[in-house]
């Protein structure tokens, strides 16, 4: 294995390997069409060739999975998880975000520009290699394990509590660890808010756990997320790839972002029109 080795899942849960700034492996996407990438890059099909091109574009534009990684950015989408978190940190409703960054691993973020820069254009991070200069940019004191770039949300939450943060946002994949995070013993004056992303092809069990414990969850290309939301009439925003507000606080977070960008507030209008959604849903 190369010393400089990163694995991400992106664009229909495609496994992509990046080594020394080069894309060395691209798997097969589970999804043929995504309206977001159709809008951004005019991509009608998520082929391996397009996925490789898209990742190479990210490497060129902001140094993803390289020592040149840019960690501060302006908004990428008008309405995504990182944008929602950024807005609510700016409003003071969240004072720390536990997330992950390529070249860094799990980290704590309090700067809205770093929250956006770290999460705005990166999909699920499976493993990464630490870069000391990128870690320095986000603050070594904010990194769970600067030597290994460990991905560990529980340790991130522990660090946030130890540092005295009171309203902690946690970005997490659709996974059973969500239950462990939700049940983590907290001081009485500490709140955690769980934001779930990367739900494409998540199992029904994983999605049921996510809806039971999270505040906000993205639809991605998940059929299970959409079916569960339809059944429970969950508030949401978005006509192509909806984001669902599971709790009252989650709805407040979404509406704060929508108000900032001048969009209509969350609704629970069902059935959803899935004509413009990713295809197929998995």
What series of H and E elements makes up the topology? EEEHHHEEHEHHEHEHEHEEH
Overall shape: it is globular
Q: Strand-residue fraction?
A: 15-25%
State the separation between the terminal residues, measured CA to CA: 32 Å
Could you describe the largest sheet, including whether it forms a barrel?
Answer: 7 strands, mixed
Class by helix and strand content? Answer: alpha/beta
| Number of beta strands | 11
Q: Helical segment tally?
A: 10
Q: Strand order, biggest sheet? A: 5-4-7-8-9-11-10
Low-confidence stretches: none
Oligomer: single chain
Percent in helix: 25-40%
* Rg measurement, Å: 18 Å
Determine the mean pLDDT: 96
Structure description:
The chain has 282 residues and is of the alpha/beta class. The protein has a domain at 71-260. The protein has helices spanning 35-41, 48-62, 81-90, 112-119, 132-138, 153-162, 177-182, 204-213, 223-232, 248-260; strands spanning 5-10, 14-19, 22-26, 96-101, 105-109, 124-127, 167-173, 191-197, 216-218, 235-237, 243-245. A 7-stranded mixed sheet has the order 5-4-7-8-9-11-10, sandwiched between helices. Strands 3-2-1-6 form a 4-stranded antiparallel sheet, covered by helices on one side. Strand 1 and strand 2 (14-19) form a beta hairpin. The longest helix has 15 residues, at 48-62. It is globular. It starts with a strand and ends in a 22-residue tail after the last helix.
């Amino acid at each position: 294995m190369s010393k400089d080795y990163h694995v991400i899942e992106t664009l229909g849960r495609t496994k992509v390997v990046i080594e020394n700034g080069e894309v060395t492996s691209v798997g097969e996407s589970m999804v043929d069409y995504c309206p977001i990438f159709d809008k951004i890059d005019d991509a009608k099909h998520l082929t391996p060739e397009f996925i490789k091109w898209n990742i190479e574009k990210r490497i060129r534009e902001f140094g993803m999975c390289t020592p040149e990684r840019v960690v501060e950015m302006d908004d990428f989408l008008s309405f995504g998880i990182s944008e929602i978190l950024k807005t609510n940190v700016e409003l003071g409703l969240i004072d720390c975000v536990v997330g992950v960054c390529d070249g860094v691993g799990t980290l704590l973020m309090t700067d809205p520009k770093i929250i956006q820069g770290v999460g705005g254009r990166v999909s699920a991070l499976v493993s990464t290699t630490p870069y000391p200069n990128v870690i320095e940019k986000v603050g070594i004191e904010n990194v769970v394990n600067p030597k290994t770039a460990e991905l560990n949300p529980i340790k991130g939450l522990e660090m946030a509590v130890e540092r005295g943060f009171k309203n902690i946002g946690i970005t997490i994949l659709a996974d059973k660890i969500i239950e462990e995070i939700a049940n983590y013993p907290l001081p009485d004056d500490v709140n955690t808010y769980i934001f779930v992303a990367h739900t494409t092809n998540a199992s029904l069990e994983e999605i049921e756990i996510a809806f039971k414990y999270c505040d906000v969850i993205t639809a991605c290309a998940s059929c299970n997320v959409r079916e569960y939301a339809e059944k429970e009439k969950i508030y949401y925003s978005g006509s192509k790839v909806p984001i669902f507000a599971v709790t009252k606080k989650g709805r407040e977070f979404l509406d704060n972002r929508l108000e900032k960008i001048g969009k209509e507030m969350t609704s629970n209008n069902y059935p959803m029109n899935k004509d413009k959604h990713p295809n197929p849903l998995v």
